[in-house]
């Protein structure tokens, strides 16, 4: 599944290339709670066709109604539109209590600039797009860090290539995790040189490669929008892949396994490969959030939840980690010694 921003821009560019009138709508400010974050975009065509979203749906319905009734369509310079100033309006549009949303409306964006932006995203570049409100001047430049801001004179948004996920291992858990990642807008690559696993891979949209994991990680060229998760439980496959991933700018590097396996993995990386403590601290393991998961789908939910939280800059309390939760819930030696035989088993 294509990243939603790229899908919106690609669709809008197609509409404009066909000579259709269409509008780009961007969330530029929020006050209180908001259904969609700053920088979210949608495209709205003159006949009411829409792709993307800026709210839970009610604001989209109002925009469609306002800009299609009687054939009317906004013309001229980009302008700002605010929803949810009053409690009544916030309730009407399904905004949370006290929520206010300010949107930038850009009528008929330049087709060539849209095409250039989509092309840059396809090439894997992070792009800064600035809209000057006074005269509608748009500038698009490559950037190194995401930025979304609005002033009285300018609105800036950042568009980047899709986030990428590399999974080491093509088992049942990888199938569940790949499916969730695809629906979350990630581009997914799965690496497994083992015929017994790779030969049965069947997740459409996730690319399967058969090389050795450390070589695949190097070829993957992980960047700050990339994640690498090792799922095989096989040190020969996982360790070298993690070694390379930890040297990269990937925002998330993790591995499945018990607390004992994780401790052994960290010891191997330190003793045999000289990985220092600071680098090893980047390794997430046992990977995921503790939700009492047992089955591959449940474990995939646990991993995906942690991965998305890290991606979105959420500081997770340590008590949510698998390690701390299991240590907290594990029976003490005294409990085990005094428990009836059936319970202890």
Low-confidence stretches: 332-345
CATH architecture of the largest domain, by name, is 3-Layer(aba) Sandwich
Main beta sheet strand tally, sense and closure: 6 strands, parallel
Count every helix, treating DSSP H or I runs of 4 or more residues as helices: 14
Radius of gyration, CA atoms, in whole angstroms? 24 Å
Domain XdhC Rossmann: 165-307
Domain XdhC- CoxI: 15-83
Pfam families: XdhC_C, XdhC_CoxI
Organism: Azohydromonas lata
Your description of this structure?
Helices cover 38% and strands 21% of the residues. The protein is an alpha/beta fold. It has two domains: 4-159, no CATH class; 164-326, NAD(P)-binding Rossmann-like Domain (Rossmann fold). Strands 12-11-10-13-14-15 form a six-stranded parallel β-sheet, with helices on both faces. Strands 3-2-1-5-4 form a five-stranded antiparallel β-sheet. Strand 11, helix 6 and strand 12 form a beta-alpha-beta unit.
Give the topology, please.
Layout: H1 4-17, E1 22-31, E2 41-45, E3 50-52, H2 58-68, E4 79-83, H3 87-92, E5 100-107, H4 111-122, E6 127-132, E7 138-142, E8 149-150, E9 154-159, E10 164-168, H5 172-183, E11 187-191, H6 195-198, E12 207-209, H7 213-220, E13 226-230, H8 235-246, E14 252-255, H9 259-273, H10 277-280, E15 283-284, H11 296-311, H12 322-329, H13 333-338, H14 341-344
Parallel strand pairs: 10-11, 10-13, 11-12, 13-14, 14-15
Antiparallel strand pairs: 1-2, 1-5, 2-3, 4-5, 6-7, 6-9, 8-9
Helix pairs in contact: 1-4, 5-11, 7-8
């Amino acid at each position: 599944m294509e990243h939603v921003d790229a899908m919106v821009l690609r669709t809008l560019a197609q509409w404009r290339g066909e000579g259709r009138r269409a509008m780009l709508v961007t969330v530029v400010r929020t006050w209180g709670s908001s259904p969609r974050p700053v920088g979210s975009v949608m495209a709205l065509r003159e006949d009411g066709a829409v792709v993307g979203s800026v709210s839970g749906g009610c604001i989209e319905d109002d925009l469609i109604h306002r800009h299609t009734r009687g054939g009317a369509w906004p013309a001229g310079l980009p302008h700002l539109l605010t929803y949810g100033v009053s409690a009544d309006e916030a309730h009407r549009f399904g905004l949370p209590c006290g929520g206010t949303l300010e949107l930038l409306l850009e009528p008929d964006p330049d087709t060539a600039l849209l095409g250039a932006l989509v092309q840059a995203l396809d090439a894997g570049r992070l792009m800064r797009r600035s809209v000057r409100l006074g005269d509608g001047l748009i500038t698009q430049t490559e950037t190194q860090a995401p930025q979304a801001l609005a002033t009285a004179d300018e609105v800036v948004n950042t568009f980047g290539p899709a986030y990428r996920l590399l999974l080491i291992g093509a088992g049942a858990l990888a199938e569940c995790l790949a499916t969730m990642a695809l629906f979350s807008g990630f581009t997914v690559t799965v690496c497994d040189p083992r015929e017994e696993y790779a030969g049965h891979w069947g997740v459409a949209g996730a690319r399967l490669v058969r090389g050795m994991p450390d070589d695949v990680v190097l070829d993957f060229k992980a960047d700050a929008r990339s994640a690498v998760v090792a799922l095989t439980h096989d040190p020969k496959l996982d360790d070298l892949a993690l070694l390379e991933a930890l040297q990269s700018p990937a925002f998330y590097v993790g591995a499945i396994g018990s607390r004992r396996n994780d401790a052994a993995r960290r010891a191997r990386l330190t003793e045999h490969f000289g990985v220092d403590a600071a680098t090893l601290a980047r390794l997430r393991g046992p990977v995921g959030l503790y939700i009492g998961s047992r089955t591959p789908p449940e474990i995939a939910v646990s991993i995906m939840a942690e991965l998305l939280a890290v991606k979105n800059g959420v500081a997770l309390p340590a008590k949510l980690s698998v390690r701390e939760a299991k240590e907290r819930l594990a029976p003490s030696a005294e409990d085990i010694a005094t428990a009836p035989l059936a319970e202890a088993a």
